[in-house]
Amino acid sequence: MEMLTENWIYIPAFVAVITVLVFVHEYGHYKIARLCGVKVDVFSIGFGKELFGWYDKNGCRWKISAIPFGGYVKFFGDAGVASNAEDGLDEMSEEDKKVSFHHKPLWKRAAVVIAGPAANYLFAIVALAILFFALGQAHTPPVATKIIDGSAAQEAGMQPGDRIVAIDEVSISSFEELRQKVLIGLNEPVHLKIDRNGSDVFLTVTPQIVEFKDSDGNVQKIGRLGIRSEKREFRQHGPISALVAAVDQTWFVTTATLKGVGQMISGVRDTTELSGPLGILKMSGEAAKRGEDITDRLLSLFNFMIFVSISLGLINLFPIPMLDGGHLLFYIFEAVKGKPLGEKYMEFGFRIGLSLVLMLMVFATWNDLNKPWVKDFFVGLFS
Question: pTM for the whole thing?
Answer without folding.
Answer: 0.79
